[in-house]
């Protein structure tokens, strides 16, 4: 299986990742892509994502391992950025290529649930009254449990 | 030799510093002694993990960091 797992420290354009990824998987029957961006509105001026470097990329590969063993995939792209972001900037891009749509869609869903609450990232938002850490929501854990 | 202790995410705000260098060796009780009772309570929480020398401990009470090791205290994550 073709695998591309990246931890990015600079802004990225998702199309520039997904285009080559799609081209690298000839014969695919379907490709599913999720792009997560910093939400606008709600008074959020900026967002910062920090991580623990010795574990981050290894953890992302473990998530890719899980998706690869669980779903019949041709290729999997996981790109996650760290650093400071403005609203509208992409944070994460997951793309899965497969012969059949269900595997691609489910693999992206699986990877996103794990990136949300089982990868070594911490998020905080800058609002008018300062920085606030984003706590994981109970929904995030419930989403993760679906795959156990 | 010192042990480098890192407090990640929101724990960096309630620990004495985001990064501390302490004399090794460092065990679980020694780690809790470095921080306030409030911070220690959070570190005891089931959702907080400890990594030592690049490996997440299955049981954080088993922490036995020696000089030169890096210990990371990892609160609940929020990526994606």
Automatic annotation (TrEMBL), chain B:
Read off the Gene3D superfamilies from this record. Answer: 3.10.20.30
Residues of the signal sequence?
none
What superkingdom does the record give? Answer: Bacteria
Transmembrane stretches, start-end: none
Pfam families, alphabetized:
ThiS
Cite the InterPro entries for this sequence. Beta-grasp_dom_sf, Mopterin_synth/thiamin_S_b, ThiS/MoaD-like
Protein name listed in UniProt: MoaD/ThiS family protein
């Amino acid at each position: 299986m073709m695998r591309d797992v990246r931890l990015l420290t600079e802004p990225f354009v998702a199309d520039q990742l997904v285009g080559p990824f799609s081209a690298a998987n000839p014969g695919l029957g379907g490709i599913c892509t999720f792009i997560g961006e910093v939400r606008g509105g709600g008074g959020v001026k900026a967002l910062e994502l920090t991580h623990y470097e010795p574990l981050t990329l290894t953890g992302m590969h473990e998530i890719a391992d899980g998706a690869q063993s669980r779903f019949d995939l041709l290729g999997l792209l996981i790109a996650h950025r760290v650093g400071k972001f403005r609203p509208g900037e992409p944070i994460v891009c997951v793309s899965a290529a497969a012969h059949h749509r269900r595997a691609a869609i489910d693999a992206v869903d699986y990877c996103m649930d794990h990136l949300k609450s089982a990868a070594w990232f911490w998020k905080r938002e800058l609002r008018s009254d300062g920085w606030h850490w984003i706590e994981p929501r109970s929904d995030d854990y419930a989403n993760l449990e679906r795959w156990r | 030799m010192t042990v480098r202790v890192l407090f990640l995410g929101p724990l960096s705000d309630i620990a004495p510093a985001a990064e501390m260098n302490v004399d090794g060796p460092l065990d679980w009780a020694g780690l809790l002694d470095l921080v306030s009772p409030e911070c220690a309570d959070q570190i005891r929480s089931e959702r907080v993990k400890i990594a030592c020398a690049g490996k997440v401990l299955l049981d954080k009470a088993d922490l036995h960091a020696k000089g030169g090791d890096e210990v990371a205290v990892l609160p609940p994550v929020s990526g994606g």
